[in-house]
Amino acid sequence: MIAVADHNFSYSNWVIKIISLVGVVFALVAVTSWKLDMLSFGLASSRYEFVSASDKAKQLECLTRNIYYEAASEPFEGKVAVAQVTLNRVASGNFANTVCGVVYEKNVVYQRVICQFSWFCDGTSVHKPIHAAAWNESYEVAKQVLLENFRLPSLTTAVYYHADYVNPQWGKPKVAKIGRHIFYSEKAQKT
Fold first, then answer.
1. Could you tell me which residues come within 8 angstroms of residue 159 by beta carbon, excluding any fewer than 6 positions away?
2. Quick one: pLDDT band at residue 117, thresholds 50, 70, 90?
């Protein structure tokens, strides 16, 4: 014969456990619903930018072209600086919002088309790169800056530059000189 032990069965303990379980399920549903709402309304995506592999490859190509045509003969840091200015422009909100958009951006000033990067307007862009080593180095720099977030600390605010043999008198704060380029920020940096 099997003896059955007399357990003190308490409805109050059982009710508390059920209420706790319902509370956990309710909280889980509420949090999940809130997250889905954020995704559907685009609020979460503003924090994280999703880019396809194809788009990233196009950005890499555009950045490589810009580095090659703007800084092929510059030292490594000069190439990084040109790439960094390009990405700083993308992030600034004052230029196009993609790498290719910034590289190929044109403005019309007094009925004259002006490219952000001179090589695009002066006809250089129709020529294929002829210096394989400079192209390969430009590509490697573009990968490091675009994909690996390599940056020069002195250029975090730089969005403009020009060759040291011209003087456009922009009146913008100078932040660095690297190789043959002088770099500027939009506004004076707070110290």
1. 85, 88, 89, 92, 94, 95, 184, 185, 186
2. confident
